[in-house]
């Protein structure tokens, strides 16, 4: 079929709604279960492009968690530590695979934002990945295929209405893309830029050293930014995005937003948070929310008498700012990508607070000298890619 009717557009009042192929060709997607909506399909198709490129660049299975046309998380299939398994709620009975590791990382980086996400997988969905997906609140998944066991598990989600989409991985879109705004048609060439290590060759700082792992993480950050609403920056560590700042008008606000998310990801691994004892039966989303509040300035919202008893088995001590600062100082070797140049060194100062060691950005600001000088102050290595990655 070359078109699909949708329930409605972005909002219920926006009818009629459909997706279709202008050239009369077959749609590259097949809906195996459920009835995806307008935003679901935007997330699915953007997410698929992201994971396809991640796999091509790294050679590893990849996954992403999309919400409102930007990724909440993206990762490749590196093995999980015991700590990450705990904070990502990975069931010890599941026989983990590279793809399921990628999904656990993508979903777990920013669990608050990933709630109700749309998932994209670079490889055929296997049983382990489906078992993880089954336990999370999600709108749907897109992948090039599904094992029979995985499909059976996913079809049982949301009372049989879970959105399961299969993408034709051989599909190649036309080189020109179009969209309408206020009745006016916009046309542009697709962003087919290949992100690879060559983009990281122009290192402009005193420190010229980037390890293979750091280069991999910078490529992950840039590919993630390619499909993130601009302005955007992305912090990456050990093969996964740990903080994504999307759609901000100010570059420093992107850097702060993403840095704060990266800090939360690291604080979740602290002994103070790992020691939290939740009451039996507390749902995952409620645990995530409680942790988020516990490490914030509003911690008394979960520690007040009459409240903590509904969340914790025993009242935890306050996680002080001094304790948090000490733990955050242990987060190192983080990679940072930016979809456009950093105009001032304040972005580097904020990145340093979240353990950033290597940076990739286009360069070209009239204050490049100030940005480079700030990197040199902290011994960071920064590459100028010469390429902007705006996405709207």
UniProtKB/TrEMBL annotation:
GO terms for cellular component: cytosol. One of its GO terms (molecular function) is IMP cyclohydrolase activity. SMART domains: AICARFT_IMPCHas (SM00798). Signal peptide: none annotated. It comes from the Bacteria. InterPro entries: AICAR_Tfase_dup_dom_sf, AICAR_Tfase_insert_dom_sf, Cytidine_deaminase-like, PurH-like. One of its GO terms (biological process) is 'de novo' IMP biosynthetic process. The keyword Iron does not apply. PANTHER family: BIFUNCTIONAL PURINE BIOSYNTHESIS PROTEIN ATIC, BIFUNCTIONAL PURINE BIOSYNTHESIS PROTEIN PURH. This is Phosphoribosylaminoimidazolecarboxamide formyltransferase. It comes from Candidatus Monoglobus merdigallinarum.
